[in-house]
Amino acid sequence: MLAPAIIPGAFWNWNRSQKAPDGPEPWHRIRSSQRPLARWIRRRRTAIPGIALRWIGPFGFQENSPTRSYEYPWCFHALPIVPRMSVVEIGAGLSGFQFVLSRAGAHVVSVDPLINPNPDVDWTFPEQDFRHLNRAFGTNVRFIRSTLQQAALPAASLDRAYCISAMEHIPVTEIPPLLDEIRRILRPGACLVLTVDLFLDCSPFTSKDHNQWGTNVPVAKLAEAVGFSLVQGNREEIYGYPEFRTDTVLSRISEFLCHRGVLSQCAVFQRC
């Protein structure tokens, strides 16, 4: 499915309780109006006392698109989170979602090589920042600075994988081995909860292959090719299915959450 223009009230409440997607409103205003100050503070995360970190919340340390207002709560509510379940988040950077999963009782591994798709946005951080945030939030997220394939997680060891608006930044040729690795580390019947940006200025909407952020990935076709099946999502709104039509998407554009020509595809795939 494509994220709708009208965000459900339950999702707004979740965002408010988790201070997502950008931290509390005063902090968000500082970040929006005084970017140099906000960047300076983010670079000094390890010097910020735990009480201040808890006020800012786990989502206050990475710049996020407004579409995350829907994506984060959707991913959290797409499937029940059972205490002590084992999950991996792929390409999270320093996003707050991994800490929310840990606070919900999941055992979380975060895997990210931290390669910026755009030099104007700083998504990198020293690993001591991660330890500092874990202490402040009372979480225990295990961070691995690596690609998922290089992380070599045990086969069939995880109950769920999350990948939130990261796959579109990866070269298309590298996505099939990534999906194959996700399938390998998930237990049979486990699920991949996925959001993928859909760029209106790239193919199949235009002749352009990619933009400064990445490319449109036929994720449905690639996921099913390596042994995943769709269990949540609308085939007409997920690129890679034959039911997906660009003219239909464009004719319904007012129905979808769109930020600067970017829509958000949301889907749950199950390991066959």
Give structural notes.
- The protein has 272 residues and is α/β, with parallel strands linked by helices.
- The protein has one domain: Vaccinia Virus protein VP39 (Rossmann fold, 3-Layer(aba) Sandwich), CATH 3.40.50.150.
- 34% of the residues lie in helices and 18% in strands.
- It has eleven helices and seven strands.
- A seven-stranded mixed β-sheet has the order 3-2-1-4-5-7-6.
- The longest helix has 11 residues, at 68-78.
- The two termini are 21 Å apart.
- 38% of the residues are buried.
- The model has no long low-confidence stretch (mean pLDDT 91).
Overall structural domain count: 1
What is the rounded Rg?
Answer: 18 Å
Unreliable parts: none
CATH architecture: 3-Layer(aba) Sandwich
Number of helices: 11
Characterize the biggest β-sheet. Answer: 7 strands, mixed
Residues in β-strands, percent: 15-25%
Arithmetic mean pLDDT? 91
CATH topology: Rossmann fold
Query: Considering the protein shown, what is the CATH homologous superfamily?
Result: Vaccinia Virus protein VP39
Strand order in space, largest sheet: 3-2-1-4-5-7-6
Helical amount? 25-40%
Structural class, from helix and strand content? alpha/beta
CATH class label: Alpha Beta
Helix and strand sequence: HHHHHEHEHEHEHEHEHE
Distance between the termini: 21 Å
User: Quick one: overall form?
Assistant: globular
Q: How many E-type strands? A: 7
